[in-house]
Task: structure prediction
Amino acid sequence: MNPCQSVAESLLAYRAGALEEEAHEHIRGHLASCPRCRELEAQVAELPAVLNESIDPPPELWSQIMKSQAANKDNAKPMTPALIPNPNLAVRVRQDCVYCRGSLFAARVHCADCLARYHESCFIANKGCGVLGCAGREFLKPQGLEETSRRMSPGHHHPLGRARKPLLALAALTTVVGASFLAANKYVDSLPKPEEAIGEVLEPKAPPPPPPPLPAQAESRPARPEEPEKTERSSAGAGFYRGVTLERRSGEALAASSLRFAFPKSEPARPDLIFESCGQLHLNVDDTFPWRVADLGAPDQDLPMGGAEPSIESWARERLAGEARAWRYRSIEPRAGHAYALQYRGSTQVFYVIEKEERALTLSWRPGGFSPAEDFEFPNGEEEWRSPGLELCDGLHSEK
Amino acid sequence: MMKTRERGREKSSAGAALDLADAAALYRRYASELFGFLIGLTRDRSRAEDALQETFIKVLRAEESGAAVDEPRAWLYAIARRVAIDLYRREARHVGEPLDELLDSSAALAAIVPQSWQGLETAERRRVVQDALAELDVEPRALLLLYAHGLSFRRIGEAIGCSHPTAKKRFTEAAAALTRVLMRGRIFSGGEL
Result:
């Protein structure tokens, strides 16, 4: 196959960030040397916006839905969890015991960490929560029962064992089911919602440790292959990076040194920060969703980027919660000693300008980010957002 | 026609679960974008209306069951996609026609006077791309539309019942197929690569 043909077919996936790293780099390399494919890429980049269309349904449709629902109410089966498209997506809690997959009646407890449901005996037998990725060792009992929270003690053994004595387990289960069946409905009705259960019975817990560093989440992308690696991991193990040098773009070449943010990894967009020839930091975004960036000012004391508080990140979080920020959507003036918040959908990352020179910026940032306190909309009331892409700076820095 | 500003707003999964008690609020907030999605998927306004109606009937049933959802927007897209595909296949079975013939003629693409992408107005681009999309099977078509409507690959994976790396892989295949169609129609300048 013509190499251009192969690249062309991958461009939309490339733009979406759906390709493996190796394929992504291959396309990027090809685009740097092939003007025809770059032209095609610009066209492909417009496809998502073209396909994203919102159309008002007929005004009477909602009343039809209500009528249809009322007419079918007697015949319609209530939606069971199985009918909900994906339990992981839609249903906050399982309807059966995570451990034995049996139906849950009165003997229900929740994992204190993820709220998965268990028979109490099953949670004990499993020595904690069995949900993938959850290391919960405590369970919660719904309010009204004699015990509200219980910590698993090391070496605690379930009297039945983990399916080692299946007949005994079956007999015990049958007994429990029989004894509790009559009380089941009343019990289920009286159950608090999981959120309520957390709020009422959870014991105070130590704050979770900071997320482990994710080196792959942000990367310094040198414009020239021979550029020496300038990123250093903090030796303090706090999961932040300092000393990333971002060279200023020069001339008319599209190639630029950029700091690429790629969190969360499932997001299609990978925004790049470019120290543009105009002297401002430009946001180069892969797709049509808006990123925004705000100057949070200079912390009034020397703070580490992350890790033990107070840190620049915790300071930034307070600043964001405090007053309204002047958000910028395309570019922002970098100032030495200032911290900046970069937001996209549900995530915020903080970066800090350590030093600003004529030809380079030195930054630090902490991968991982946190959720913003507020939603944000398209800037200036726009209803469509178009990424500036890799266009050279026009010097106007218009936010429209 | 109304553009919504809700695009791209996926709540963090750590956020509060949405109580489905107010399906009407969900309808007010998401009906327009879902209707656009369903029209793109079915290529037929009346089928899209049926699918939207069926989608919200399922939402009302879920409300009765007391379920709560973490990601209402992604969840609605997942239901709408499933409903549209079911509707589409049910009609194909009853009518006994090949699936593509149920759609507006995808041959329309071939009838387009070859014209560069730059020469097309926004509405023409939309029509051309939707015609190209209609040449794909319904599953990849849904995948591309879910992405275009702003769902992350993780949410797309959840909506179609696979991991997000698999969703990316399927998206890559669907995107390649769409690009091939557009290049074949010489809509994109790469047609002569």
